[in-house]
Design goal:
The chain contains 12 helices and 22 strands. By secondary structure, it is α+β, with helices and mostly antiparallel strands. Strands 3-2-1-4-5 form a 5-stranded parallel sheet, with helices on both faces. Strands 12-15-18-22-19 form a 5-stranded antiparallel sheet. The protein has a 4-stranded antiparallel sheet with strand order 6-9-7-8, sandwiched between helices. The radius of gyration is 21 Å and the shape is globular. The chain starts with a strand and ends in a 20-residue tail after the last helix. It binds adenosine monophosphate and glycine. Adenosine monophosphate binds next to strand 7 and strand 17. The site of adenosine monophosphate (AMP) has 11 residues, from strand 7 and strand 17.
Length: 424
């Protein structure tokens, strides 16, 4: 029997736990810390994802065989290195690999070295604030300024106005708005195009292409309002043609993996390529060292076959046995139900009502939920995501919304236009 520890507590990890539960491999699943739904598939254990010592202790005392890491922070902090040192298999890259997400300056320099298309840029530290401002003046609006390190999705400032952009530089480099994450900034050229995301699993030698996805980051319809962790997603991406796929593979995925090898980084985990299509050229906007949320909520339901076996093969360097990963031609959509006020201040603790009977091929995915005295309660900004699968994207989206109309909690909000640009 395989004992598995899955780290995280969002919709991404619920979807992973759901998919792992379908594995024919005999296993026992623990989720740390999990949410109000993940205990359907295993045992929630109250350990924080950043409690590296606590995780190590649990893994040793429970004799865990495989740790699957959902979020980036523990990876950037070196959790995989620490666990591998004590002989534990990990699906999630070592610290050096996680730098693709953990430092934007590192990622940009890496892309330059290996000829991977990305926006032109320069990076500066706090002693170079005057040079940074000079560089800003040499660019045209909109200005793109990024804190170097992890900033929970808030470290990118895009501004039309030069004085605002200068203010952003001051707040990151001088006033340390993002703490150590802002000890450097990247200033880069603004790219105008359509964004989408491509995912791979790799064991450092081989890679498996996973389904691509498009997420919807803004809080309001028509992609307006504040940025969020993600309000919904669709997969496949209708414009991801064979020609575009081939470009992504040859110009981005393969050079990235070659670059990691040349740097001597043995990367075992997922890579999330945040891409943008500008006319017919594709550029990398960002790398992430993990799967996306809510992209996972549409990717995993489309993967046919055993996700646990995939994660094991990534961790054990046996991915070649799993390639290619088969994907259903069915379309998937997911729509996130969020707490009123999110992504700004919001209240938690409202009871969530979900009926037993929902349309076929819909999946209620728990994110910010918790169980208290057998009631299900809201416990975060993004509360529940409703995924549906159908032969066509329109039907999948309609099914997601049909199910949503039966779910309620106080203050519940969701976007009514997920996938809109593909339904015209
Ligand atoms: P990141 O955290 O790097 O993914 O940036 C967050 C968001 O900012 C991206 O999803 C894009 O929408 C936007 N963005 C980042 N870099 C650029 C760029 N060079 N040009 C245009 N938009 C960008
Ligand atoms: N949905 C974007 C992310 O996971 O970073």
């Amino acid at each position: 029997m395989k004992k598995i520890l899955l780290l995280g507590s969002g919709g991404r990890e619920y979807t992973m736990a759901w998919k792992i539960s379908q594995s024919p491999i005999t296993h026992q699943l623990f989720i740390a810390p999990g949410n109000g739904g993940t205990d359907t598939f295993g045992r929630n254990v109250p350990i924080d994802i950043n409690d590296i010592e606590g995780i190590k202790h649990f893994v040793e005392s429970e004799q865990i065989d495989l740790v699957i890491v959902g979020p980036e922070e523990p990876l950037v902090n070196g959790l995989a290195d620490l666990l591998e040192e004590i002989g534990i298999a990990v699906c999630g890259p070592c610290k050096a690999g996680a730098m693709l997400e953990g430092s934007k300056a590192f990622a940009k320099e890496f892309m330059m070295e290996f000829g991977i298309p990305t926006a032109s840029y320069r990076s500066f530290d706090s002693s170079e604030i005057n040079e940074a401002k000079k560089y800003l003046h040499s660019l045209k609006a909109p200005y793109v300024i990024k804190a170097d390190g992890l900033a929970a999705g808030k470290g990118v400032i895009i501004s039309e106005k030069l004085d605002e952009a200068e203010e952003a530089l001051n707040s990151i480099l001088i006033n340390k708005k993002f703490g150590k994450s802002g000890s450097k900034v990247v200033i880069e050229e603004y790219l105008k195009g359509i964004e989408f995301s491509v995912f791979i699993a790799t064991d450092g030698m081989h890679y498996a292409l996973l389904p691509e996805a498009k997420d919807y980051k803004r809080i309001n319809e028509g992609d307006t309002g504040l940025n969020t962790g993600g309000m919904g997603a669709v997969s496949p991406v209708p414009f991801f043609s064979d020609e575009l796929k081939s470009k992504v593979i040859h110009q981005i995925i393969e050079p990235t993996l070659d670059g990691l090898k040349k740097r001597g980084i043995s990367y075992r985990g997922f890579i999330f390529f945040g891409l943008i299509l500008v006319d017919d050229q594709v550029y990398v906007i960002e790398y992430n060292c993990r799967l996306g949320d809510p992209e996972t909520e549409v990717i995993l339901p489309r993967i046919e076959g055993d996700f646990l076996a995939l994660c094991l093969s990534v961790a054990e360097g046996k991915l070649s046995e799993m390639i290619p990963v088969n994907v259903t031609p069915q379309a998937a959509s997911t729509v996130m139900l969020v707490s009123g006020g999110y992504p700004e201040a919001y209240k938690k603790g409202f009871e969530i009502h979900i009926p037993e009977a929902l349309p076929e091929h819909t999946l209620v995915i728990h994110a910010g939920t918790i169980k208290k005295e057998s009631k299900l309660i809201t416990n975060g900004g993004r509360v529940i995501s409703v995924t549906a699968l159908a032969p066509r994207l329109r039907e999948a989206i309609d099914k997601s919304y049909d199910a949503i109309r039966k779910i309620c909690f106080e203050g519940m909000y969701y976007r009514r236009d997920i996938g809109y640009e593909f339904l015209k």
